C-alpha cells in the first residue's frame, strides 16, 4: 500500500519528510496514531543515545521543547547529571556538593555533560579516596596542594584518576544502593578519561 492519504495527514500533523512519513506508516500498517507514537519513541531513543541520559529525562525534556530533538539534546548537555545513593533525579535546587567535569590540557571544559554528586554522598563514599592522592600538583594554581579542597577546584590527571578508581573498586559495601552509586561514579569518570587531559572535582561547599 502507498498510504497517500495517511502520509498527507501525518505530514500536516508533524511536518516531516515524505520518506519518513512513508516509513513510519509501513512499520505501523497505516495506523496514524501508532505512527506518531513510533516517531516520538524513535526521537526519545535518539536523545538517549546522544546524551546517555535516562528515558524519563529524555521524554520530559523532549516534551518541554515541543518535540524538538536538537533543542532537547542541547538542553540536556547544558545541565549536569545527578548521581546519588538515593537515586535523586535532576533538580534545579541542587544544594551543596561536587561537580565532576572533563577538562582539556588548557583546563577548558570538554565535558558534554558534568556530573553532580550531593555532599552527603561524596563525603561518605568518595571523599577518603580522592583525599588520599594528595599532596597533588594542581595545574590551575601551578603548585602542589597539600589537601583536597572542598570549596573550589581539584584537578586530577588520568593516572591519578585510575588510581582512585582502583581504590574504589577494592572497597566493599554491604548496602546495595551504595554499590550501585560507586559503580555509576566509576563508569562516569572512566567515560570522561579518553576525551580529556584532566578530571576536575569542583566543590561548592
The proportion of strand residues reads 5-15%
Terminus-to-terminus distance: 63 Å
- What structural category do the secondary elements indicate? alpha+beta
User: Globular, elongated, flat, extended or rod-shaped: what is the shape?
Assistant: elongated
| Average pLDDT, all residues | 89
Helix content: 40-55%
What does this structure look like?
The chain is built from eight helices and seven strands; from the N terminus they run H-H-H-H-H-E-E-E-H-E-E-E-H-H-E. The chain is an alpha+beta fold and 205 residues long. Helix 3 crosses helix 4 and helix 3 runs parallel beside helix 5. It is elongated and about 70 Å long. It starts with a helix and ends with a strand.
What's this entry about, in short?
With 205 residues, the chain is α+β, with helices and mostly antiparallel strands. It has helices at 4-14, 18-27, 32-51, 55-64, 69-78, 119-131, 158-170, 176-192, and strands at 81-82, 97-103, 115-118, 136-138, 143-145, 153-156, 198-203. Strands 1-3-2-7-6 form a five-stranded mixed sheet. It has a two-stranded antiparallel sheet with strand order 4-5.
Amino acid at each position: 500500500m502507498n498510504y497517500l492519504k495517511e502520509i498527507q495527514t501525518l505530514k500536516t500533523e508533524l511536518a516531516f519528510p515524505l520518506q519518513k512519513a512513508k516509513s513510519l506508516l509501513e512499520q505501523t500498517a497505516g495506523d496514524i496514531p501508532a505512527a506518531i507514537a513510533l516517531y516520538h519513541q524513535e526521537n526519545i531513543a535518539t536523545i538517549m543515545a546522544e546524551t546517555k541520559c535516562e528515558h524519563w529525562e529524555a521524554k520530559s525534556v523532549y516534551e518541554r521543547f515541543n518535540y524538538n530533538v536538537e533543542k532537547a539534546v542541547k538542553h540536556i548537555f547544558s545541565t549536569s547529571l545527578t548521581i546519588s545513593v538515593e537515586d535523586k533525579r535532576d533538580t534545579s535546587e541542587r544544594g551543596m556538593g561536587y561537580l565532576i567535569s572533563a577538562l582539556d590540557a588548557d583546563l577548558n571544559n570538554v565535558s558534554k555533560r558534568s556530573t553532580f554528586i550531593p555532599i552527603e554522598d561524596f563525603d561518605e563514599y568518595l571523599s577518603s579516596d580522592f583525599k588520599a592522592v594528595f599532596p597533588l600538583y594542581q595545574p590551575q594554581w601551578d603548585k602542589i596542594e597539600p589537601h583536597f579542597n572542598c570549596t573550589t577546584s581539584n584537578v586530577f590527571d588520568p593516572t591519578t584518576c585510575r588510581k582512585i578508581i582502583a581504590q574504589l573498586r577494592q572497597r566493599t559495601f554491604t548496602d546495595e544502593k551504595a554499590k550501585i552509586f560507586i559503580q555509576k561514579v566509576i563508569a562516569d569518570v572512566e567515560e570522561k578519561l579518553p576525551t580529556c587531559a584532566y578530571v576536575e572535582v569542583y566543590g561548592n561547599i
